[in-house]
Amino acid sequence: MGTRFARLWRTINHYLLQFWQRSQLDRLLGTLPAPENAALTLPAEDALASVIIPALNEEKAIASVIQYALSDPATGEVIVVDDSSIDATAEIARAAGAIVITSSMLGKGISMRDGVAVARYEFVVFLDGDLSGLQANIVSDMVEPLRKNQADFVKAKFGRGGGRVTELTAKPMLKVFFPELAHFSQPLGGIISGRVSLFKNLSFEAGYGVDIGLLIGASRKGARLAEVDIGSLEHESQPLTDLTSMAFEVSRVIHQYSREAGRLHVEQINEMYENQRQAVASFEYVLTRQKGRSKLLLLDMDETITEGRYIDALAAATGTEAELSELQQDKSLSDMERCEQITELFKFIHRSQFEKVAMGLVLKPGVIEFVNQMRRERFMVGVLSNHYFAGTEIIRKRIFADFALAHVLQFQNDICSGKLQFNDAFRPEHDRKALTVCKSHVLDQFRAKSNVPLFTEIWAVGDGQDDIKMLALANRAFVIDPKSEDYGLYPHIQRVSSFAEIKVA
Fold first, then answer.
1. CA distance 462 to 498
2. What's the pTM value of the predicted model, to 2 decimals?
3. Cis-peptide into 179, omega within 30 deg
4. Residue 155: how many CA atoms within 13 Å on its side-chain side?
5. How far is Cα 425 from Cα 283, in angstroms, rounded to an integer?
6. CA-CA distance, 347 to 252, in Å (whole number)?
7. 36 — phi, psi (to 5°)?
8. Angle at 258 between CA 253 and CA 264, to 5 degrees
9. Longest dimension (CA), the chain
10. Around Cβ 256, how many Cβ atoms within 10 Å?
11. Rounded CA gap, 62 and 252, in Å?
12. By the 8 A CB rule, do 466 and 484 touch?
């Protein structure tokens, strides 16, 4: 009987709140006179958390975020901390059912701290004011590890990867200075939950570094950390100038905490820069380049884009042609073993040599014009290679493509160590330790349903035996001067003699 009564009471509360919110919005729109303070909360019986939303000029989205939070049974109150907005953020937030306070000083971190100071519940959940596309009950999901006493601090995981600052700044730096935190998918994400008692003992950075600072600070305090997958969500994209400021601020905060922890050394700085270079070769970074496009073109590099093979030109430039030929003919080696042993031939070669060789390769006629045409047709264009990212990235830039994916050479102070890191994008998504790599797995990953937006059309162009599986999976596929007759087994793969023959129909 008690359970049925509780459900009935929550249902009544839900409809009362909807009615009240509608009346408040009507007042805001001028149909009724607005009262001085419209804040009202009707928490569910099992409410556990104060939801805090720092906001600055978020009048377009703030009402929907508040209503979303209030619909979650774990939400006890919604606190919007207004950073002195010059639009109608505060008025709309009150009308939507939030408690609204004004931040004591400009800056997201200060707003978050001010929200914690007035929170009435044991747990707090931070949401951003510009969110959309949220799955149901994220507040409950974020509170669950706290409620079960499994964690003190929780970060949300969403989507396939982070943005550019996450992939190129935060993750490489964490990998060097705080490797125990390197596994977090969204270290800069603003969706965070935790115990009020913990947050009151943490420092809140004023600006963009607040979220990474809280993560590191909680770890340094010995808090139990957890990550909760909340599916996917949509954020308003940041202007490039804001991303630059964000990168600087994030770097400053991580350096500050690493210095306090006694982890800041010259050798680590060099390692950090190398990790940042490698991050550009990751699939997660590539997704940050999508920019809303749903069509994709994948181009093999060797003897498709270029007249010759990069590895042959590199061996010629470094005097290792005989050794390369011997390894290529050794039938006892697996493909990955062969790649690893070939890489050892280039130990102690300077990074500039790898780039110089790529600059010297002759491009196939018409490839630049073809890439530009496809980009005008809103295709995202990428270059794939089974060889080294250091050279593939140069070719990518020479043909004005959007991204490159290849295996990553390990450098120390710009000198090749002779070690190779196989790119996970070339492995099956369900088995990152697989002993085989293939370009077809790259195509599979682009087709994954977790990508937003989905890629609905994928084209591919290749030439050799190692391209067949990729071409077989593409919606439209082309082979230039094929090196194998196996292409005939796939009727949809079109044989062409040049890029000029490939038409967008």
1. 11
2. 0.61
3. no
4. 24
5. 6
6. 34
7. -65, -45
8. 120
9. 87
10. 16
11. 30
12. no
User: Three-state SS for 181?
Assistant: helix
Domain with CATH 3.40.50.1000 in the chain: 283-501
CA dist 406 and 424 (Å) reads: 10
Blockwise average pLDDT, block size 10, the chain, 505 residues? 46 46 45 36 71 93 94 95 89 95 87 95 94 88 95 89 81 91 92 96 89 96 95 63 75 88 74 74 86 94 96 97 95 92 96 94 95 93 95 93 94 89 90 84 90 90 91 95 81 93 85
Question: How confident is the model at residue 391, as a pLDDT?
Answer: 95
Please tell me the distance from the alpha carbon of residue 162 to that of residue 193, in angstroms, as a whole number. 19
φ and ψ at residue 380, rounded to 5 degrees:
-85, 125
Within the chain, all domains assigned CATH 3.90.550.10 are found at 2-267
Helix (H) or strand (E) holding 68: helix 62-70
**Measured at the alpha carbon of residue 33, what is the angle toward residues 27 and 38, in degrees to the nearest 5?**
65
Cβ atoms of 146 and 195 closer than 8 Å:
yes
- Strands of 493-496's sheet, edge to edge? 415-421, 403-412, 379-388, 295-300, 457-462, 476-480, 493-496
Cα dihedral across residues 56, 59, 61, 67: positive or negative:
positive
**Helix residue ranges per DSSP H, 377-436:** 389-398
State which amino acid sits at residue 371.
V
Spell out the CATH class of 2-267: alpha beta
Q: Which residue has the tokens 């009615």?
A: 19
Structural class in CATH, domain 283-501: alpha beta
